[in-house]
Amino acid sequence: MPAARESLLDAAYQALARRPWSAVRMVDVAAAAGVSRQTLYNEFGSKDGLARALVRREADGYLAGVDRALAGPSDPRERLTATAEWMMSAAHGNALVRAMLTGSWSERLPAPPLTAVPSTAGAPAQRRADGPLPSPGDFVALVRDRAVAVLYGADPLAPPDTAELARSCELAVRLALSCVAAPPAEGAVADLVRTALTGRPDRP
Questions:
Q1: From the CB of residue 200, how many other CB atoms can be counted at a distance below 10 Å?
Q2: 181, 102 Cβ separation under 8 angstroms
Q3: Phi-psi sector, 65: left (phi>0), alpha (psi -120 to 50), beta
Q4: pLDDT tens digits along 7-60
């Protein structure tokens, strides 16, 4: 992603942390990024385009974190536990991620439609942002499918049942999402996932 585009998205994200999206001004975002307002409009087309690009970036960052968690411990159950903990952490630290995962968009946040919008953007990244944005159900499927792809065949001594693996992965994802909506005590999400997958909270 070009440096100017990334700087503008950073500036928009920082502005959103300080004030509601309705009060974020394009001229202020451009100034904070150190570029002209025309550059901002060239990249995003409009404030709505900027909102879509910001949501798309945060969605991509969330899924990149999922991939990192799945690449962690060797035990498949521990990878799912790490993924659930990442989901909780990401949602706790990022209001846009929390809104995307739960579908609950507060009045402070931009809430672009999830359906694709007509795009005349010259920047490929903006054309992608103008496409469909993931719904909460899409995120469940995306994380589940990533987990299945990584964990399939992880234990060569026990060839997995693909359908059962997919069910276990989706269970871990949905448990983590329930914890996003109603946070448990600190550290409890790991025990919940381990118990659901193994029946025992004290072992991977």
A1: 10
A2: yes
A3: alpha
A4: 999 999 999 999 999 999 999 999 999 999 999 999 999 999 999 999 999 999
For the question of whether the overall pTM of this predicted structure is more than 0.85, the answer is: yes
Would you say 153 and 145 are in contact if contact means Cβ atoms under 8 Å apart?
A: no
Closest residue by Cα to residue 46 from 142, 156, 126, 140: 126
Longest alpha-carbon distance in the chain: 60
131's tokens: 């496409």
Residue 12 one-letter amino acid: A
For the chain, percent helix, then strand, then coil, each to nearest 5? Answer: 70, 0, 30
Residues in the chain predicted with pLDDT less than 70, given as ranges, are 1, 153-160, 199-204
